[in-house]
């Protein structure tokens, strides 16, 4: 009887597991000792059965051999299944001895490297290592042996056509029955696409970093420029105020002397009186421009001053209508005014008159001949509402948002050479907001414009009359 502790048993089992034949004398015990016999151990069940019939008296040993043969068959079936998996996997699977001699090379390795199994079996693994790489193979093998387990690393390897491929290699030790490492198993995966994606991602990240650096640099430049502009802004305001003041003095003097000359216009020929009238109008225009610049400088400096008293809005509107009447008549415009008696408890009459003059003069200036301009003023709760509507050229939507910016002029105004500085509506907005009011507009290109003012107000006294005017 063979026992697991016997040396012969271990030799017998090892022979079966290797698929080899083992020949040795066996002491078989049935009911009694039958003497020494020769027993042949083989992995084929049929051969074992034949031996069993010859050595009937050694039935126990034969039964044991049959059980071992079945165990070997089951093990071989598992090995065949595993071999099928290894062969059909998409990864390259390579086995080699410790001296780097290749003992297994699956179809995945053939596809990846271009070498067939016949070309690589018995060859050195060094065959797929690039010529310049003298350390990666041994260094990673040593690392695996030190870990006494799996080790994964990424490296370049060489195909049959000489091209290089990025791969991920997982090394595992192969051991014999006694547990000693006798070889290496390698699972090799192509990571070229992953490396390409990583490279593209890194390029995108680098471009993003460059863009961020450029944006940061641009932002720092803008901040520096803004700081510089903030430093220059008071200087600009002081300069504008100073220049405007210096201009106002001689212009006032010029106007004064012009007035004296025009009082005695009978001493001048008609042509000279006409010339003096042109000079007078242009000097007044310059004086208004200087006044506007001074006012804008005051607004920027937060030094706007309003002389608040009770103001009759009806009278202010009537004065503004009378101011534009000559131009309206010249252009044959229909000028209509309908104003309720309204009193504003606290307002600067001069500044509000300036707003109304500006809005009405714009309506008349931008309305073509034979058009119409209408003015309405009425109470809406606790607010006075003034609406100036014209049938002029209208304002493009992209220009409307900037219409109250200083020095802004619409493209249409520039194209048609309509005079103006672009300060009127900016000043009007500052004055209206200084009265806790609002100014807005609605316009359609080619359909005209409506400007709306809203100011805190109350109904006028019973002595005030409604102002209605129609100029056809």
Fold and architecture overview:
With 472 residues, the chain is an alpha+beta fold. The chain folds into four domains: 7-85, no CATH class; 90-190, PAS domain (Beta-Lactamase); 200-301, Helix Hairpins (Orthogonal Bundle); 309-471, 2-Layer Sandwich (Heat Shock Protein 90). The chain is 49% helix and 24% strand. The strands form four sheets. The chain has a six-stranded mixed β-sheet with strand order 13-14-12-11-9-16. A five-stranded antiparallel β-sheet has the order 4-3-7-6-5, sandwiched between helices. A three-stranded antiparallel β-sheet has the order 8-10-15. Helix 2 runs antiparallel to helix 3 (59-88) and helix 10 (349-365) packs antiparallel against helix 13. The longest helix is centred in the middle third of the chain and has 72 residues, at 192-263. Mean pLDDT is 77; it is low at 1-5 and 18-62.
Structural topology:
Layout (H helix, E strand, L loop, with lengths): L6 H11 L4 E8 L3 E9 L3 H10 L4 H30 L3 E6 L4 E4 L1 H7 L3 H4 L15 H12 L3 E8 L5 E12 L5 E10 L1 H72 L6 H32 L7 E4 H18 L3 E6 L2 E6 L1 H17 L6 E9 L2 E8 L6 H4 L10 H5 L8 H11 L3 E7 L3 E9 L1 E2 L7 E5 L1
Helix pairs in contact: 2-3, 7-8, 8-13, 9-10, 10-13
